[in-house]
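Schema walkthrough. Field components (list of strings):
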Amino acid sequence: MNAMPPTEEDEAITRLSREFIAHTAPQELPLFRAVSEIYLNDPARLRSGASPGVDKMLGFGSGELLDLITPIVLVVVGEVVRFAVREFGAALKKRNANDLNIAPLNLAEAPAAAERNMARVSAERARLRDLIDAHFSLSEIENLCFEIGVDFEGLSGAGKLDKARELVAYCARQGRLVSLIEACQRARPFVAWAQSGAGALTAEQLAQIYEVALLRARDLKLADAQAALLAGALMDSLARSAA
Amino acid sequence: MEDALTQAVATPAQDVATAPAQRLNPFLFPTDTNMRFALLIVAVLSAGLLVFQSLSNAASRAMFHAFALNCGFTKACWQPYEIRQAAWMALGTLGVMAAGVLLYWLVPAWKIRRDRLAPITREDDAALFDYLQQLAREAGLTRTPIFVWNPLDPRVGGQAFGRLGRYFVALTGGLATRFYNDRLAMRAVLLHELAHLRNKDVDRTYLALTITAAFFALAFAPFVLSLLAEADTAFALSTLWRGMALALLVYLTCNAILRAREYYADLRAATWDGTDANVARVISGMPRSTRSVWRLQLTHPDPHQRLAVLQSPDRLFHAGFWEAAAAGLAIGAAFANVAAWLALALPAAQELLAYPLAALVFGSLLAIMLGVNVWRAAFGQAQLGGAWHVFVIFALGAGLGLFAGRLLLFRSTASDITANVQAGIATLLILVMLAFVGWLSVCAAIWLRAVHSEHGLHVTMAGVLIVAAILLVALLGAAFFVADNFAPWMDVPAQVFEGFNKVMRRLNLWLPLVGLALVCVAAAFVFRERPDRLP
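Field assembly_structure (string):
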């Protein structure tokens, strides 16, 4: 099979993955080039995780099964980068329409940056709740729910504030906050619903990046601490890239 | 002699800094891997002849009845039928072997594809690549193998494979990560795999596996199916048990090859490494095997047993009952089957050549197999001391094996051969083996005192084995000829057995088999290896 030349996305994926492996599992560096080539040529092979190949009958070795993280990291980074380019590509290519500019991982600072970003997410969600409470009546909130396909009666609480809080929380859990903000924007165009803060990516977009990374890493059985570090580092890198 | 013929390797118990212990060099003699491979070929030969004779019968029943009507007992009249049958047997058996060789040739490419192995290049990791090349140079291989890997395989392991002139060493992804965090363990695994190449056992291993697979797929499966359709149940059962016994011998011999090679690779790797500690550490991490009764079907020796041999390779200098019994069984079966096949294939006037020809091949082979074992054991005894009764047990195993092998003939043995006659034949074969092994062990003990170098040892042993082969060709040919043609003369007087005689006559052929099985089980119990009880 003739491999396609790597795209800018591919290069960003391998670079970010390598940075993460060099920091967290340097013993896997000898594997990195070969595994990343497999990923670029046949990503399906990696999505199912690592697989034992050499038969037991004639081999020699302790037979111990290691948790190789390189394949998982490549898959997670790949999905996050592709997601980010698809969803917020313009922000990542702002210097030159053809250039994809993704900042290196800063793993030493990643936990603190992730904490800051998540605090920003919480604050922005609280602000969204308050804006909905301030600009919509209870029946208008019901209409909003209908528009974005949320069961209004299913939201707990009776008062307007309760319903607004539950609606924001529900949409956050379902990854549908962007739809909610867009619906709000259509209904009350004069209100500044999304706040881009320090970077070009909104807190909600950063939260989405974090959740995509974390969920996929956990799906692929990456240890919790490593999954959180990877998700936080990717969120931080993309936030800096778009800033 | 000790200095020249022993080698220095530190044992795991020792500190690497301390002086390594002197121990016997297991590579002075042909390895068990080679001997067992020869046994496997012989076993496949016997099994193939038996199986294809049965298939030939099933395929030409109408022709058989036509010949039976016209020819009666006239040998010359039967000849076209017999030649046709002999051709079936020979072509079938050769076909199995050829299919095995073809598979052996194709296995590396198939394995690379199945396990998704790719060559390790310098671009992957220059330090790792250079290290692998350096290990290959340390191993002193004339041709560097191709290092391949499946970087997604999370296990920690390696494997040497390939075919003549094109060998590979496969690494798992897990093993490659050891390059940075446990290089000594990685080195031990790779040296072990390179030792397989240096010991030249990769070809034998894969040939053993593919020939065994070809035998079961192309010969044994159709054989069993044809017997299921056989109307004569007694005939079917009589053929089936012999076919199954030979198939079991093929299977167990193949597994025995896979086990034997590991001991030698462990020892070679530890010698190169300068210490046993790293190889021992990897072995210690391997999963333990199940109950001892199932060890015969294992393709790897139990790690406990491997450690015991690694600590004390003197254990490879042991002449064991089972080794001799297996050799006797395979050679006995091959001798009987090939002699009977020659009798079919040769014209009536030359039929008597069947015994000398079979004796020439299989007598020589048995002499070499037993001879090497006896020389090795005598060498071990000369260095470490030991009891003479080992050789008696060894000869007993060979004699009983030969006797049992004779029963695995493709055509049914005559029903007038009673249990008493069988006992006489067994006694004759055991006596022949006692005389042969006794003579050989005395020769070895005398010559070993005069030998002072490895070259001298090999020359002397080769000379003695040539004489031993000539002797055994004559002894074995005569013993089988007498057993087959003058069996009634060996009938043991009835009064010897008194009360048992009636039962034995009733049980006819089955009693010797039951007795043989009991003897084997008892011998296995008494002489079984107990490495875990070694100091």
